[in-house]
Design goal:
Structural class: mainly beta
CATH topology: Porin
Helix content: 10-25%
Radius of gyration: 16 Å
Organism: Clohesyomyces aquaticus
Oligomer: single chain
Shape: globular
Number of strands: 12
Number of domains: 1
Distance between the termini: 29 Å
CATH class: Mainly Beta
Order of helices and strands: EEEEEEEEEEEEH
Protein name: Tubby C-terminal-like domain-containing protein
Length: 201
């Protein structure tokens, strides 16, 4: 992976954006993800070229269920259930280990591109102005809270012959699992697009 610009993200004032208790960044954090040859995803704290420790592992455990587990003890921390539609856009439901839906993301495909529409479950409280936008702070995508970038995700260099890696930056006070989930949804969407293009060729 080529060196990437590290964006500066302002901390979210207390209490921050807490969706999954225990997974709130205490300072600006960097993570990176790497796809395995079997299609699983490994998530690390740190950077590919610096100090790092394994954080989560994601695997498809049953049809359209993608489970993120603690890398050290195997405990489930988050589950994404993919709802596919032939006519309408895909919807990804993000669940806590007890099955409670925390939020969902709908891919709105338009001629101008694909919009990522996040809807929080009312149980997590009222969080206005949570958006995913392209090209934020030199990164491919950013998550904005009331217009302020609070997380970014980027693929600094794509190698078709190597496993894909993505780099995530998270502001202090931000829920860590939300940008990790958005990054995986972006990977899944782009993989699906590539398969569609290949089948049409």
């Amino acid at each position: 992976m080529a060196p990437s610009i590290t964006p500066t993200l302002n901390p979210i004032p207390p209490p921050g954006l807490v969706l999954f208790p225990g997974f709130t960044a205490q300072k600006q954090e960097a993570f990176f993800t790497k796809q395995t040859l079997s299609g699983k995803l490994d998530i690390w704290i740190g950077s590919p070229d610096g100090l790092r420790s394994e954080f989560l592992r994601m695997a498809k455990e049953k049809r359209k269920n993608f489970v993120f587990r603690n890398a050290s003890n195997g405990a489930e921390v988050m589950r994404i259930v993919k709802e596919t539609h032939f006519v309408h856009s895909n919807v990804y439901h993000v669940l806590a280990p007890d099955g409670t839906e925390k939020w969902s993301l709908k891919l709105n495909r338009k001629w101008s591109g694909t919009e990522y529409e996040i809807t929080l479950n009312p149980s997590v409280g009222n969080v206005p102005g949570l958006l995913v936008q392209n090209k934020i702070l030199g990164q491919a995508k950013g998550i904005l809270l009331n217009g302020t970038p609070v997380a970014t995700t980027d693929t600094p260099e794509v190698w078709s012959h190597l496993r894909r890696e993505d780099l995530i930056h998270v502001a202090a006070g931000m829920d860590i699992l939300l940008p990790i989930a958005v990054t995986w949804i972006r990977i899944d969407k782009e993989n699906e697009d590539a398969e569609t293009a290949a089948s049409a060729a």
